[in-house]
Description:
Layout: E1 4-7, H1 13-24, E2 28-33, H2 40-46, E3 50-54, H3 60-74, E4 79-82, H4 97-125, E5 128-133, H5 146-166, E6 171-178, H6 205-212, H7 223-235, E7 242-245, H8 250-266, H9 268-273
Parallel strand pairs: 1-2, 1-4, 2-3, 4-5, 5-6, 6-7
Helix pairs in contact: 1-7, 3-4, 4-5
Amino acid sequence: MSKVWFVTGSSRGLGRNFVEAALSRGDKVAATARNIEGLENLVVAFGDAVLPLALDVTDKEAVVDGVRRAVEHFGRIDVVVNNAGYAQIGAIEELTEQDLRDQLETNLFGAVWVVQAVLPHLRAQGAGHIVQLSSAAGIVAMPLGGAYHASKWALEGLNEALAGEVADFGVKVTVIEPAGYATRDGKNPNPLDNGHVAEPNPAYDGLRRRLGQLVGKQPAGDPAAAAQALLELVDSDNPPLRVLFGQGFYPMIEQAYADRLRTWSDWQDFSARAHAR
């Protein structure tokens, strides 16, 4: 039986590939984006199987209305993909309050509003799958990405708690942690040049130069391959809570977890003293 999807951030990048893959295999999709002009060709190609919805995920009332319209149009929602988001770049000292609030409003609160809007429908159905796009940046952190890391690390914890809360209702939760993908002209986008960069403080210029020589130059994954992997994931009877898309970051993540465990182990005596009476 075909599935009905609700996908945020559908106009480009991985979100667009997810929507096209679902529609191409006969599924139906409520495709949301702040600007739906880029979705018009999907309507031409797939007709009523796609419902374009203009939606800013930071607008809670609009999210509730978008979910309601999707359910009214298709009768149900089976797969929810929280994909909308962006990366705010800047050293912690450089971030304005608005920079940080805007980052969290979109990446964190936007995802929460979608989850809260869809859950009553999924609970009533007794089934559903919520897929959250996190990032390797939700597991390890690098300089100049503090705001983005804060939003993604928050999503990791939020969805782990969510999975335990909704399991009894037949609702599944999966957090996808992608590596870099060729989502812009066949290239891996450079996050240091993405239009969301804090006003620079010259004190961090050297750090920026060093990181600029590293980021965005890793092998870029194929977005179409990610879309096919997502189809396989949502068709699984027992999907994982977390899964990496791509292998480029696995050695870094493995080392990061090994370092954390070693540090906690090395400091166990100290930790015990911190708790002793």
